[in-house]
Amino acid sequence: MKPKGMIIPQYMEIFFDFVEKDHEKHNALARGGHDFLHACRVAQSAWIISEKYSTKVCAWIAGMLHNTDRFYSEKEIPNFLKRALSLTPFHSQSLESTMIIESILNHHKPNDENDNEVTIVLKDADRISDLEIIQIIRSAQFHPHSFIYDPENPSHVVDTSKDFSSSLFTNIHRVLEWEHDPKMQLRNPKAIEMAKPGFIFLKQALNDFERQLALLSMW
Ligand SMILES: [Fe+2]
Q1: What's the gap in Å between 24 CA and the centre of ligand 1?
Q2: Measured by CB atoms within 10 angstroms of the end CB, which terminus of the chain is less buried, N or C?
Q3: Nearest Cα to Cα of residue 19 among 11, 28, 7
Q4: What is the distance in A from the centroid of ligand 1 to the CA of 120?
Q5: Which of 9-18, 45-54, 150-159 has the lowest mean pLDDT?
Q6: 106 CA distance to ligand 1 centroid (A)?
Q7: How far is the CA of 66 from the centre of ligand 1 (A)?
Q8: Which residue, among 113, 115, 135, has the nearest Cα to 179 in the 3D structure?
Q9: What is the pLDDT of residues 65-103, one digit of tens each?
Q10: Ligand 1 midpoint to CA 126 (Å)
Q11: Domain residue ranges in the chain
Q12: pLDDT confidence bin for 155, thresholds 50/70/90
């Protein structure tokens, strides 16, 4: 399945099919928070926000492969990535392969001043590709059994207790921190620009949430 508008760089069709088949094998073509479509959106975002062509290609590959940690154990990941990268123009000892692998292994961590250029793009792309309504849908997909909010204290933003740490409400607040928290802030100028409507939408969603509960005198 090639999503409409999907960019596939030259000589990367076989690699693209390989990644799709791997997601299919793990029952993750178009379902769950880390499905093939998420990988495609992250790769596409990475392509769009990268400034240099060489970074575009590496960050696109990293985006396509960044769900790897959801499907394979730590022990299995290096072998899988080696196999996947053998289908790209970059041989396993190349600087590009090293940067791609590093970015995949670190993409879920907070910003770090030692992040390589591919990691910087992948972290931003992973954050911005699903802002707005998709962010809310994915939060629900990730935590289908979580509370939507803390019913006794709905305005309670960050609750680290087991029940509410992954509530939909807390997750939206967490995403909004990407706008200002230096550890999570976007770093690529194009990503910062692209994310603006997403942050506005999520703030509006929280306002609507508050208004709805206030109408019921439950805020
Ligand atoms: Fe992701």
Answers
A1: 17
A2: N
A3: 28
A4: 14
A5: 150-159
A6: 11
A7: 6
A8: 135
A9: 999 999 999 999 999 999 999 999 998 889 999 999 999
A10: 5
A11: 13-127, 133-215
A12: confident
